[in-house]
Amino acid sequence: MQQPTLIIDDTTLRDGEQSAGVAFSLEEKLLIAQKLDGLKVPELEVGIPSMSAQERDAIQCIASLDLDAKLIVWGRMCNADLLCAAPLNVDIIDLSVPVSDVQISKKLGKTRDYVLKEIPIMVGRALDLGFDVIVGGEDSSRADPDFILKVLEVAEKAGARRFRFADTMGCMEPFGVRAAFEKMRAHSGLELEMHAHDDLGLATANTVAAALGGATHANTTVHGLGERAGNAAMEEVVVALQYLHQIDTGINLAEYKDVSALVAMASGRAVHWQKSIVGEGVFTHEAGIHVDGLLKDPENYQTIDPKSLGREHKLVLGKHSGTKAVLSAYEKIGIKLSKVEATSILDMVRKFATEMKRLPEKVDLFNFYNQVHPNG
Length: 376
Fold this sequence. Notes:
The longest helix has 18 residues, at 339-356. The chain has helices at 26-38, 53-63, 79-85, 101-108, 112-128, 145-158, 174-187, 203-213, 234-245, 256-267, 288-296, 323-332, 339-356, 362-372; strands at residues 7-10, 43-45, 70-76, 92-98, 132-138, 162-167, 191-196, 217-220, 284-285, 314-315. 44% of the residues lie in helices and 13% in strands. The protein is α/β, with parallel strands linked by helices. The chain contains 14 helices and ten strands. α8 packs across α9. The strands form two sheets. The protein has an eight-stranded parallel β-barrel with strand order 1-2-3-4-5-6-7-8, surrounded by eight helices. The chain starts with 6 loop residues before the first strand and ends with a helix. The radius of gyration is 25 Å and the shape is elongated.
């Protein structure tokens, strides 16, 4: 089996749950983990051990599922957090430390030298406990690029396997991200992971740019759940990489609609009708010119094959429909219209959509038909 060229490390169960007001039950966490594993997501970040004993119990329960995915936990780069993770049956620990001057000084109350000295100490302790180690560079996007390179050198020498470049405040753009990853890739043999936030609406674009710049891993969440504006959405990253750049993640999205529905329910965050990839309206077509083109050949108005996502095109009637759409809609319910009847019904459809602010349903279509064909 061909190895993925970019590995998805999904953090729905960690950063996704950090969305304000989101709290997964244990049962929901287990179901989400199993569903993501079923899609062949290679890595799952499943929680923060230092948060509570209940969180640690949940992580152990996920570990007991014996999933194919590697399991990751997150902690601050300090002994207390490492000790909380020590008894857990997970593969990798992300030890996060601020790397921007503003957070080093104003959050930690420390200096750059302190960070560089702490990394080998804590990485060494984590390795001794049997973990593989990610050094998480909090606020990497606002850090001095040369200091980031120094962090990479120290982390690699200490035995870490990966550096996570975190755009913690979501303040980067794709060109800068790609340049940053190209610079890191040329300087280090570590695995490089992008952790993007969506404050400027660029999390997916920034993650794709990181992949083009040499990232080996990408942090994502289902639907882009996460703090503030959220993280990069897994479904967007996977599809964009595949369709735009032929970059394989090894993830099968044919059953993604089940994961999407589960996370929407468990998070209490409904999916927007026009949410890319997973929204109900993404493959729904009303405009006459589009419907006509799709009826002739789906390739006329199709970038993504909906079948690859377990979806299909849906043609609906509304204000912008044409007669061909009316003829097709009625044919599907077993009624063959004349063009004159279709034109009359189209007027009714447009009036209905304008006044009722919704699409006509099957019962409405029969209603329209009875008005133009009373003896039918």
